[in-house]
Amino acid sequence: MSAAANIPIIDISGDQDAVAQQLVDAAQEHGFIYIKNLGRDISVGDIDGAFALSKKLFDAPLAEKQACTIQTNNRGWSGMHSETLDPKNQKVGDFKEAFNFGEFVNGKAQQPLPPTVAGDEPQISAFADSCHKLCRKLLHLLGIGLDVGDFFSSAHSTNGESSSILRFLRYPPPDQTSRSGDDIRAGAHSDYGSITLLFRLKGQAGLELQKKDGTWAPVPVCPPGSENDPSPPILINIGDLLSYWTNGLFRSTVHRVVFPSDNEASKVEGETSAGPRYSIAFFCHPAGSVALEPVPSERVKNFVPDESAPNENPYAERKVMTANEHLFMRLKASYGTLYDEKKP
Ligand SMILES: O=C(O)CCC(=O)C(=O)O
Ligand SMILES: [Fe+2]
């Protein structure tokens, strides 16, 4: 059995003050949190439906996807090897394809959609809305836990203007697609937004997080205790912005998606990396002009970073900037040429 990351599973329907404390503790200790999924916040049917739409979209003719190629607004389709999440270490881009949906306005996408899924726009928009609502609930609870009231949640009260992204991801089957030793499904990175929701499918291995000591631990889809739930827990992770706002108290933990390995320590019982892998992420972003200054919380003020721990996140450097400036810096590093080409 593997040394899986010891992330707590939290039932957010419990006593709200207690839940808020548990969330803050997990955000500080792990930067990752499992939310017990009883279908209350997002129904199991809606999650299954989103995965079915993701498969439909990726199965669409290549020309339809290419016509929606990702733009500098971070919306659209990115093909194999086009995004490099760990540009300092990767020789080739990520072994995956992805489709980014920006915020919908009145149920309408503000970007081209492949005709194959155009009729599904209401369902995709509703799913993005449910994700945004759940993120705001979590942000509200994190604010309560830090004693800063509704600061985080209000910063995310956006109306079609934030950089929040609903992202469908498909990782091709490793043995049916040619690859070299340099390939990785998703390079090591921290997330660029405030908070990320991640939906995965039972049995599909690959996600790993970097522990404080610098070693990697697998993040099981169904951790012990969730086996009998109607759907795997929703995995939450803290992004760079919450780390800035809390002066490093909350960890924007580095993670990656790997191929099958021979290393027993990285295996999770009941999971395999053999087939294609699908995941769905929702990256929640605040209004772009929000400044990333530390919030006035006693717990943040009293936090002393562990200087002896390896600095696992190269972006954890604390500088005041706005949410949009930070996002642009990260996107430029991952899609270098796209952003260079568009320079005036
Ligand atoms: O596919 C996954 O499990 C993780 C994807 C991820 O970390 C990302 O897109 O930021
Ligand atoms: Fe990520």
From TrEMBL:
Record-linked InterPro entries: DIOX_N, IPNS-like_FE2OG_OXY, IPNS-like_sf, Iron_ascorbate_oxido_reductase, Oxoglu/Fe-dep_dioxygenase_dom
Keywords: Iron, Metal-binding, Oxidoreductase
SUPFAM superfamilies, sorted: Clavaminate synthase-like (SSF51197)
Gene Ontology BP annotations: small molecule biosynthetic process
Short name of one Pfam family: 2OG-FeII_Oxy
Tree of life domain: Eukaryota
Domain Fe2OG dioxygenase as annotated: residue spans: 161-286
GO MF annotation list: metal ion binding; oxidoreductase activity
Family per similarity comment: Belongs to the iron/ascorbate-dependent oxidoreductase family.
UniProt-recorded name of the protein: Fe2OG dioxygenase domain-containing protein
